[in-house]
Amino acid sequence: MMQINMKDYLVEIVDKPNETINDSEKKILVDQCCIVARKGFGNDGITESDVETHVLNANTGVFVKDKKSGEVVAFGSSDATELDGKKVLHLKGTAVLPEHQREGLYKIILPARLLMESVKLQSQDFYIGSRTQNPIVVHMMTNKFGMQPKIGEEADEDIKQLAQTYAKWVQDKHSDFRPSFGFRMDDFIVRKAYANSMGTLYNVPKYFDLNKVKSEIEKKKKDSEGFHGEVLRENDEIIFKQFSLKEMTHLLKTVPGDYHPMLKFEELGFSMYGPQLKEVDDKTINNFMNNELDVQKGDALIMLGKLNVDKAFKSLDELAQKQGSEVNKVKDYFLQNK
Fold it and tell me: What are the two backbone dihedrals, phi and then psi, of residue 324, each rounded to the nearest 5 degrees?
């Protein structure tokens, strides 16, 4: 683990968090990152299992702690793979508490992942990918790191082809949900990238114990296992609302096995950022995100580009002016080990 002692923050860069952090520290880390994610995205429906997927199941994790409180106020992680014969670094979830969002923490969270992963891959020749609903991220990724699509401009043909493969990979590997997949290669939009699950059980037997299911859900909520959904009865139907498929699998143990084939899933999308997206200075991006994406139904944008070391260095230099020279420990490590 690399620690960076900044003026106001302590940054911890962790290799393979799920393997290197002990269980008690994992629990504390996930709890704190849940608070960051829910407040940062303005969405209390974000589950612990989803945060675990982003925080722990990663190749590199970056955690920023406030020196005064000692608690995590921002985090980001990454995972590397090979798609269509090309190395791709997937930037997993990044979140910052609202009261710290103007401190430029992304200027170390992103470069740290890029440069540390470059050392691990022993290569500077790889692609960087991300999936987002956030206009701020789109603006930063395109303008500061040269990623595509650049709204209003035609994307490179090789990027288009890789983006389709990458979008499907992200959906399959890095989501609790399994919604139907739809990708528009012309503008990099993924339909229903973020989805809730609704399971409806028809022809429910008279002896079906709805209270047992509800009791199980309440128990899981008390145990802080990330259950946020509800279950209810409507006539002869039992409806499970807003559970991930992982949670549904657990809950179905309370349903008589003979009735499992009758279960029907209806995919419902949602916005990670609540009902209103934030806007940026670029009206072209705002108009595109508002008019072409239906984020309330779970649409998202795929971002893809090549590693640019100079831009990563520039980002660190900018933050070092505000938070102290130790920020550039990441740059020094990269130059010594590339």
Answer: 100, 155
Distance CA 67, CA 219 (A): 35
Single-letter amino acid code for the residue at 118? S
Q: 90 near 127, Cβ under 8 Å?
A: no
- Exposure pattern of 297-313 as b/e (b: 16+ CB <10 Å)? bbbbbbbbbbbbbeebb
CATH number 3.30.70 given to 195-269: yes
From the list 14, 48, 45, the residue with the least C-alpha distance to 224 is 48
Question: What topology does CATH give the domain 2-126+307-337?
Answer: Aminopeptidase (3.40.630)
Structure tokens belonging to residue 241: 């609302």
Rg (the chain; Cα; Å):
21
Tell me the per-residue pLDDT of 200-241, one tens digit each, with 9 for 90 and over. Answer: 777 777 777 788 777 877 777 666 555 667 788 877 777 777
pLDDT at 317: 97
To the nearest whole number, what is the mean pLDDT of the chain? 87
> What is the residue extent of each domain of the chain?
2-126+307-337, 195-269
The DSSP bridge pattern shows strands 86-96 and 127-132 to be parallel
Q: What contacts 33, CB < 8 A, 6 or more positions away?
A: 51, 54, 55, 63, 72, 75, 95
